[in-house]
Amino acid sequence: SELQEMLQCGVKFEMEALCVTSFSILSEEYIPSKIEGGMYI
Fold this sequence. Notes:
This protein has 41 residues and is an all-alpha fold. It has one domain. It contains three helices and no strands. The longest helix has 14 residues, at 23-36. It starts with a helix and ends in a 5-residue tail after the last helix. The model has no long low-confidence stretch (mean pLDDT 73). Residues 2-35 form the Topoisomerase 6 subunit A/Spo11 TOPRIM domain. It comes from Nymphaea colorata (pocket water lily). InterPro entries: Spo11/TopoVI_A_sf, TOPRIM_Topo6A/Spo11. This is Topoisomerase 6 subunit A/Spo11 TOPRIM domain-containing protein.
């Protein structure tokens, strides 16, 4: 997915842009991965 590519490349992106395309990506993948990694959201 586009999100996985950005995370692997270390690319910074706007959360608002992702919310428009798919809120489920944020709730199912992005936020949990940040919490597990101890990183800021």
